[in-house]
C-alpha cells in the first residue's frame, strides 16, 4: 500500500526535479544528463580492498546525482527507479560487454539491513536492479535479478567509518541463502549496488558469492565477473582516469 500511495501521489501532486528542484518534472533534462550523459566506466577506490572485483559506474556521486540517489533511497521517490535502472544497466554493459555468452547476466543486489528496508518501506537496490534487468532485456541482453545475498549478522552504521573500519565491520557479514548457489549456476554473476565508496561492501559480497560457488573449483563462468553501481565517489573516478 505504501508503494501504491507513493506512485499515485506522484501522478496527482506537484513534483520538482529530485536533482535541482526545478518544478513540474521529477528529473529535468540537465540532471538526467548528469546521470546518463557520459559512458559508464571502470572505477577503483583507494585503498582497494582485497577481493574487490572490477567495478563500473555511470556517474560520480556529487551534486544532482547524489540528490537523485538520496531522493529514491530515503524519500521514496519511486518515479526515479527507471532512470536509475538505466544508469545501472549502462554500468553492467560496460563491465560485461567483451565477455562471451554463458547464460544470462545474473544481477545480484547487495542487501540492505532489514531495519533499513522497513524504515524506508522499500529495498532501493533491489528495485533499481529489477529496472536494470528489464532495460538489459529490452536491449537484447538476457538478464535477471537473483537476490540471494543476505546479512547473517548485524553490522554498525557505515556512515562516518574509515575504510579499514568498514572492512572490519563487514567482514563475514554476508552469506548466500541456502540453495542460492543453484540459482547462480548458469550465467555471469554481476554484483550490483547503488553506490561505491570504499568498496568494502562489494568486496564482502564477492567473498560470500565466491564462497558459495567454491571459486577455483567450478567451471569458468560460475563466479563474480564484475560489479556495477549507479554512482561512485569522485575520487574513485579520478584514480582510474590516471
Outline the structure in words:
It is a single chain. With 242 residues, the protein is an alpha/beta fold. Helices cover 43% and strands 17% of the residues. The chain contains 10 helices and 8 strands. The chain has helices at residues 2-12, 29-36, 63-74, 81-96, 114-120, 124-138, 163-170, 180-183, 200-213, 234-241; strands at 41-43, 55-60, 105-109, 143-145, 149-151, 174-176, 188-196, 224-232. Strands 1-2-8-7-3-4 form a 6-stranded mixed β-sheet, with helices on both faces. Strands 5-6 form a two-stranded antiparallel ribbon. Helix 9 (200-213) links the parallel strand 7 (188-196) and strand 8. Helix 4 packs across helix 6. The longest helix has 16 residues, at 81-96. It is globular. The chain starts with a helix and ends with a helix.
Shape: globular
Helix content: 40-55%
**H/I helix tally:** 10
Low-confidence stretches: 216-221
Radius of gyration: 17 Å
Strand order of the largest sheet: 1-2-8-7-3-4
Q: Would you tell me the structural class of the helices and strands? A: alpha/beta
**H-E order:** HHEEHHEHHEEHEHEHEH
- Main beta sheet, described? 6 strands, mixed
Beta-strand share of residues: 15-25%
Number of β-strand runs: 8
Compute the average pLDDT: 84
End-to-end Cα distance, whole Å, is: 48 Å
Amino acid at each position: 500500500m505504501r508503494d501504491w500511495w507513493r506512485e499515485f501521489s506522484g501522478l496527482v501532486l506537484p513534483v520538482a526535479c529530485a536533482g535541482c528542484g526545478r518544478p513540474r518534472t521529477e528529473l529535468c533534462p540537465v540532471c538526467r544528463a548528469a546521470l546518463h550523459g557520459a559512458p559508464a566506466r571502470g572505477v577503483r577506490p583507494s585503498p582497494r580492498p582485497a577481493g574487490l572485483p572490477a567495478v563500473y559506474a555511470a556517474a560520480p556521486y556529487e551534486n544532482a546525482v547524489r540528490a537523485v540517489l538520496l531522493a529514491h533511497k530515503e524519500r521514496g521517490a519511486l518515479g526515479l527507479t527507471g532512470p536509475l535502472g538505466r544508469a545501472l544497466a549502462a554500468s553492467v554493459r560496460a563491465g560485461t560487454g567483451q565477455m562471451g555468452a554463458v547464460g544470462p547476466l545474473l544481477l545480484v543486489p547487495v542487501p540492505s539491513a532489514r531495519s533499513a528496508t522497513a524504515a524506508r518501506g522499500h529495498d532501493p537496490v533491489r528495485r533499481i536492479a529489477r529496472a536494470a534487468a528489464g532495460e538489459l532485456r529490452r536491449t537484447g541482453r538476457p538478464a535477471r535479478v537473483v537476490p540471494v545475498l543476505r546479512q547473517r549478522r548485524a553490522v554498525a552504521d557505515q556512515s562516518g567509518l574509515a575504510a579499514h573500519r568498514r572492512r572490519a565491520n563487514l567482514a563475514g557479514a554476508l552469506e548466500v541463502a541456502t540453495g542460492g548457489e543453484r540459482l547462480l549456476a548458469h550465467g555471469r554473476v554481476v554484483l550490483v549496488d547503488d553506490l561505491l565508496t570504499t568498496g568494502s561492501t562489494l568486496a564482502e559480497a564477492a567473498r560470500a558469492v565466491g564462497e558459495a560457488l567454491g571459486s577455483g573449483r567450478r567451471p569458468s563462468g560460475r563466479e563474480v565477473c564484475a560489479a556495477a553501481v549507479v554512482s561512485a565517489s569522485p575520487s574513485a573516478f579520478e584514480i582510474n582516469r590516471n
